Amino acid sequence: MKIPIKNSIRIECALALYPRTLTGMNIIFDLNGILFDAQGEQGNMVACAALQTINPVQTAHVLRLLDDCLTHGNRLFVISSWTQELYEFMSAVPCVKRILEKFDDVLLAETIGLASSDPRIFNYLIDKHRLDPRQCIVVENSQLELHAAGQVGISRTILCTNLNVTKIRQELQFHGALSF
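RE: above sequence
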């Protein structure tokens, strides 16, 4: 049985408007204030972690968000001001380890000698992984870091200052990294 051309055209139009597969983006997350709630100053974060005041923000929601990003063909990265000591301590915590394992790379500003607000740290990540800045999205809780990302050509940014995983998901949908 032949399919009428009219229906075929309608299906092709629908697929053009609502593509099933999205182009993979490179999503660069901050850890503090985005995926983890940190109470206290940077110098006290290991102590805070030991006292369990640094926690993944809604662990199940964060894992679901990261899994959805990966399912849609996105690559995940971190640029963080965490110290090496804090990173090692936190990555030993099982729920944190599950989150950190989702990322292609975790850049700690301290280990490469650049501040997380220095545009060169974004260039470092772009060069290291041969990323196209036009295909990157930065999710940050600081306008300073978003400005640094913009200086290297990353125009897709998400400012999230209230630890809201739902808002991050909606913004990633807006930028085409996740489907609606």
